[in-house]
Specification:
The chain has helices at about 1-30, 35-85, 90-95, 105-115, 125-130, 135-145, 155-165; strands at about 170, 175-180, 180, 195-200, 210-215, 220-225, 230. The protein has about 230 residues and is of the alpha/beta class. Helix 1 runs antiparallel to helix 2 (about 35-85). Helix content is about 50%, strand content about 10%. The relative contact order is 0.07. The strands form two sheets. It has a five-stranded mixed beta sheet with strand order 1-2-6-5-4. The protein has a two-stranded parallel ribbon with strand order 3-7.
């Protein structure tokens, strides 16, 4: 609304200035008497002079709205096409929120969701695909199976606690990501574990990272800061 208001204000000022300029030209320069006919001619002349500027200002003011309308129309047209793909229904809320998926990528995700749903202990994780996440079978098994662990015995107590809190993701054998910010006074670093501060890699990172490494086994836990302060005091 603000650009439109500014454009309308500028348009009003321009027309008033044009009227004033036309009036000055007619009265002071041409010495025309201020009759109703001459005033009407001056008003029409001012409006005609201001018409190109009025059109330009109005188009500039309504440009964002037109662009939003074009994007919305393109989104609706794409959704109409994607809706026809069998199995696309669970992904439609994600697409309506503006998440872009090509037809090829949507078909891949539908096939992936069917693979996950076909395995009982993996089936509950299909909803994460509908929200835009991507999970490998190893990541799902790590989260779904209580007996699955990735780290050595030295880091195991910390891994167990974080897994129970739902704050970890499997990355590779001997490496997991912890989605939390270590509490400076209450974080239970296991004895003998090395802690390394890792500055944020880009301005898009929410927090700095902390890497915890077992020096004998070389297993690692990366606290990436993308989560709550843990453990809570």
């Amino acid at each position: 609304m603000l650009p439109r208001a500014l454009a309308l204000t500028a348009l009003t000022l321009y027309i008033l200035a044009a009227i004033a300029g036309a009036s000055y030209y007619a009265v002071e320069i041409r010495r025309l008497p201020p009759t109703q006919a001459n005033l009407l001619i001056g008003l029409l002349l001012a409006i005609l002079l201001g018409l190109p500027a009025a059109i330009a200002l109005w188009r500039q003011a309504t440009r964002p709205q037109r662009e939003r309308g074009h994007r919305q129309a393109e989104t609706e047209a794409r959704l109409a096409t994607l809706t026809q793909i069998p199995g696309a229904e669970p992904f439609l809320p994600l697409l309506r929120r503006g998440y872009f998926l090509s037809e090829e990528e949507l078909r891949r995700r539908i096939a992936r969701a069917r693979e996950i749903l076909a395995v009982p202990h993996r089936a509950p994780f299909a909803s994460r695909l509908y929200d835009g996440s991507t999970l490998t079978d190893d990541q799902i098994d790590y989260l779904a199976l209580p007996h699955r662990f990735a780290l050595c015995a030295h880091l195991r107590p910390l891994e167990v606690a974080l897994k129970q809190a739902g704050l970890v993701t499997y990355r590779a054998p001997g490496a997991i990501d912890g989605h939390f910010r270590p509490h400076p006074a209450h974080f239970p670093t296991p004895p003998g574990i090395e802690e390394q501060y890792v500055p944020r890699s880009s301005p898009r990172d929410d927090d700095d990272h902390f890497l915890y490494t077992c020096p004998s086994c070389r297993h690692t836990l990366l606290a990436n800061g993308n989560g709550p302060l843990w453990p809570a005091p």
